Amino acid sequence: MEKEIIELFRRHLRLQGDLPLGDDAGALRLRDGWLVATNDMLVRKTDVPGVMTPEQVGFKAVTMNVSDVAAMGARPVGFLFSLGVPRDIGMDYLEGVAKGIGKALEHYGVPVLSADTNEADDLVIDGIALGRTRRLLTRSGARPGDLVCVTGDIGRALAGLLAWKHELDVPAGARRALYEKLLEPRARVKEGIELSELANAAIDISDGLSKELHLLAEMSGVRIDIEAQELPIRDEVRAVGEILGLNPIEIALASGEEFELVFTLPEEKLRCLGVRCTVIGRVLKGTGVYITTDEKRQEMPVLGWEHLNRRVKGTYREMFR
Amino acid sequence: MEKEIIELFRRHLRLQGDLPLGDDAGALRLRDGWLVATNDMLVRKTDVPGVMTPEQVGFKAVTMNVSDVAAMGARPVGFLFSLGVPRDIGMDYLEGVAKGIGKALEHYGVPVLSADTNEADDLVIDGIALGRTRRLLTRSGARPGDLVCVTGDIGRALAGLLAWKHELDVPAGARRALYEKLLEPRARVKEGIELSELANAAIDISDGLSKELHLLAEMSGVRIDIEAQELPIRDEVRAVGEILGLNPIEIALASGEEFELVFTLPEEKLRCLGVRCTVIGRVLKGTGVYITTDEKRQEMPVLGWEHLNRRVKGTYREMFR
């Protein structure tokens, strides 16, 4: 349904900014660079796992928007938000959300410019972030020959969600590592700013690495080849995969809201880069996304966490029957 | 409850923009002027009268934000929105909203920079508008000696709502005039831009003239005196007042979402002003807002439409019993 709605709106929104819709953020030219702007709505019922504290909810509402600004290579300069508040919500919950938003703004050094509150049926936080940059980093700039890199590690957000949903018995240390990424992910702001001068293209991981790579390849008009064994997957993710009978690579590819940055850049620029990252593949001429596992190259499926979760349910039931 | 929530959030949001929270929009300094940013959430259940078409809903979601930009004296340069969409909404309804947003963006000449959609319990449209101006028009700039002016006419939005809610039997021409303002209000963009060079302070009428005047007086640290007989109230509003036994001046003071601009400026600048407006009063030293009716001066009550509507119900029932 979401795709249909987006299509519907695109047909009626002819007037667009200085960058077509479809990137991490929209953009307007300023005299000395670009203003980027992005918004992302968080709905408690559908977007917030029950294990998340109100403070973590508030922090994440900021992070998800700041991350989109970072993916454009921009420095976040302002945050706005609208709250839809159900009549029966506790003031304690709201205070937690407020604290979380406040902490996040201090963490990222971003001022709040405007806020609005309304009565609504469910808790809704619509966050908006503004950013500025001299050079814009888009999803369409990947060039054949570029390396494909990713910051941090991937998979922990989904592995944490699965561990929580299926009440897995994982050691406390591992749970902490997984929940850190599920509940308190951080946007890669410094990295995005550093990348803006060096990278050719970037995107943040909101919907899972596989979806983001397909977007990058499609919007840049290139082919992307990924080496499965290079993916930065931590042992805690592998452990959850083992318990649930899931391939950890699939978990890593499907894991959303990681807020790591995926970017491409010419090989010779890698030396100049002060960003800690892992090279996971290469950009080629052509189309599509491929992944090499055990010397077998195959098309990378577009994996979503819902899809994986459905499969888990079957496996899980079998395992514990 | 709204006030409590706002208080709660203010306590936790220490990092603010280059203008403190509490104006029509937030603002950031650019090299050559100001960037203003504002957001306003529309929730169907609480904000949309049943008589409004989906296209009018979409248009209004843009207008209410563009109006805040205009009140800062800024030219709107970008629009963003997030949609919360209930599962059971008709695609026809959504298409109407999309059309309305598209038409509004063309009407105001504003590009869409970013859009997001999510599942939610009720239809929610959170709109965000960005604007630019060389000189910022705030709520705190009114100076003793200034004239107080308002664009257009006031009262039709509330009179229209009352006529619809209470199924009043008003002539077609009058209903058209009332519904025009209730269902298809327009933001005063040209006027705002023109005012930015001349006026000392401005605010748009979102919550009713009386509330806006109290905000202006309070934030500017001045007293405001209004002449009731100067208020630009059309005959259609007076007619509704007569049927319902309400004072048309009260209707005009309580009528929200008019999107007219209230502004103050030095008397000698009135001649230079290309904006059609009505002088309704004067700024003085002191505090508070006063209104003179029939040579009697009294404090102006803070009137909201809910308050007036409650009173109407009684009157109305008596009239038609």
TrEMBL record, chains A, B:
Residue numbers binding Mg(2+) 5: 207
Binding residues annotated for Mg(2+) 3, in chain numbering: 24, 68, 204
Family: Belongs to the thiamine-monophosphate kinase family.
Binding-site positions, Mg(2+) 4: 24, 38, 68
Amino-acid positions noted as binding Mg(2+) 2 in the UniProt annotation, renumbered to this chain: 40, 68
Catalysis: reaction(s): thiamine phosphate + ATP = thiamine diphosphate + ADP
Additional notes on this entry: Reaction mechanism of ThiL seems to utilize a direct, inline transfer of the gamma-phosphate of ATP to TMP rather than a phosphorylated enzyme intermediate.
PANTHER family referenced in this protein's UniProt entry, alphabetically: THIAMINE-MONOPHOSPHATE KINASE
Annotated source species: Thermococcus barossii
Binding site for Mg(2+) 1: 40, 116
UniProt: ATP binding residues: 139, 206
Pathway membership, UniProt: Cofactor biosynthesis; thiamine diphosphate biosynthesis; thiamine diphosphate from thiamine phosphate: step 1/1
Listed InterPro entries: PurM-like_C_dom, PurM-like_C_sf, PurM-like_N, PurM-like_N_sf, ThiL-like
Stated role: Catalyzes the ATP-dependent phosphorylation of thiamine-monophosphate (TMP) to form thiamine-pyrophosphate (TPP), the active form of vitamin B1.
GO MF terms held by the record: ATP binding; magnesium ion binding; thiamine-phosphate kinase activity
All copies of domain PurM-like N-terminal, residue ranges: 22-132
Record: residues binding substrate: 47, 257, 305
Any one Pfam family match given in the protein's UniProt record, by short name: AIRS
Full protein name: Thiamine-monophosphate kinase
Organism taxonomic ancestry: Archaea, Methanobacteriati, Methanobacteriota, Thermococci, Thermococcales
Gene: thiL
